[in-house]
Amino acid sequence: MQTTRKKQRIAILGGGVSAMTSAFYLTSYPGWKDDWEIDVYQMGWRLGGKGASGRNRKHNQRIEEHGLHIFLGFYDNAFKTMQDLYGELARSPGEPLAAWHQAWKPTNHVVFMEQIKGEWKPWPVTFPTRPGVPGDASQPLSGWGYVQTMLELDRRVVAADRPAHRGRRRRHRSHGRRGRLDDPGPPRHLR
Questions:
Q1: pTM (2 decimals)?
Q2: Domain boundary residue among 134, 152, 168?
Q3: CA–CA–CA angle 68, 74, 79 (5° rounding)
Q4: Does residue 37 form part of some domain?
Q5: What is the 3-class SS of 129-145, one letter each residue?
Q6: Strand locations in 14-132 (E)
Q7: Which of 25, 45, 86, 134 fits as disulfide partner to 79, beta carbons 3.0 to 4.6 Å?
Q8: DSSP character at residue 48
């Protein structure tokens, strides 16, 4: 006598990037339909969560979104997932965005804006370019590598925001030591 195994029900709550990534990987297992019944529950009709966008018909089909979303080059898991998704799509070369790399525009310069006392202030940041292709994990950063990268970015942002009197020496209130405004160097505990 053969027993029929009952499928396990899986509920995915929300339609954001994490939820859709979960659904994608769960449905990537061979024979998943025999083992699982997967349902996605999303409020409203649009998937994408905070990464969702749409067009406003009343304003000439202008794209409206929750905000700019940047996939920095160190998001290897996200880029690997996109490569896997495009592999399953198997689009023909003549189709729009036929390959995963056509859906992304690489850049290493970003300008963030902050409103301070009613005035918009730009924060231009040039990120270091990593070797390799995002998602191939050929040049993974270690935990310390991430810390060093973030400290260097922080140093660049702070240095770019210095007032016009660059180079003048002043006493650092927090450390009681003398330093240069244009080259803060690494934090004291890293020297």
A1: 0.62
A2: 134
A3: 75
A4: yes
A5: CCCCCCCCCCCCCCHHH
A6: 36-41, 53-56, 62-65, 109-116, 119-126
A7: 134
A8: B
